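Email to the structure team, subject: HTH deoR-type domain-containing protein model.

Hi all, the expression group asked for a predicted structure before they design truncation constructs. Nothing fancy, just the tokens so they can compare against earlier work. One-line instruction: predict HTH deoR-type domain-containing protein, return tokens.
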Amino acid sequence: MNGEERGTTERVLTLLSLLQQRQVWTGPELAERLGVTSRTVRRDVERLRTLGYPVHAEQGVGGGYRLGPGKDLPPLLLDDDEAIATAVSLLAGAGGALAGAGDAALRALTKLDRVLPARLRHEVRALSGSVESFDGGRTPVDPEALMTLARACRDEVEAGFDYPSRNEVRHRRVEPYRLVASDRRWYLLAYDLDRDGWRSFRVDRMAGVTARTLRFVPRPAPDAAKYVQEGVSNRVYPHRARFLVHAPAATVRAQIPAAAAVVHPRGDESCEVLSGAATLDAVLMHVLLLGHAFEVLDPPELKTRCHALAEKLQAAGSAT
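Reply from the structure team: attached below.
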């Protein structure tokens, strides 16, 4: 790029920044700010339109150049303060301050991270450390760890961290695949290189999270959200059960947190519920309290337990 092209590019970026700062600019106002002629302003406006920015021109009193909404979302031009504020806000959203927006916030933050100048990273970290939430949302996680894992997923490089397993902490080497947000926590779906299999890890339980430079070829992976949800709701528990609930799947999903059970539709008026608990009685009571008619599908011993508990409840109701 020669000096003339570089000057044009810088001027067009300055023009874009001005259009993002104010509703309407007249041609002479822009020409004065840019130090060029009105004809050059018109040419630069056409360059922005070619790049996908919907710049509208209106004649008459109160008219001028205005940046409007477009069919697609073009890149935004942010100054240092705006970039820092955006990154900190996205970190707060990823941490759960914005209900239901955590995964979208992290995706946006990962995109911003790719182009964020190194000189701004320290300020983002310092400011994010002062952001608190009082709504009892997600379990707090280290934003730096979350971003390190997000970068590793994006760049397809190995990651490592210390993770508690039974009564000891072990170092895990993984190929990170996806970060998954539940209603309370962040999880990482990754291929565990030492155990040769897919695993899900709670990000808030990790320590010493690092990303390596060794790249990997992604393996065929399970559905990330489904794998993590099934693991959280039933695979980790000593007792698991399946029920046929006579109510629409949407109704039952609204009653059960995603971390507590997996709900599959079985026609329009029934659904299959998979859940786990420390005891069979606990999982049975959880489904009973939903208030719908249901049948026990698995395990067989849970049906026997139903009869025993029914006798106790009937006896309790008959006592004088």
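Residues 80-128 form one domain. DSSP finds eleven helices and eleven strands in the chain. Ping us if the truncation boundaries need rechecking.
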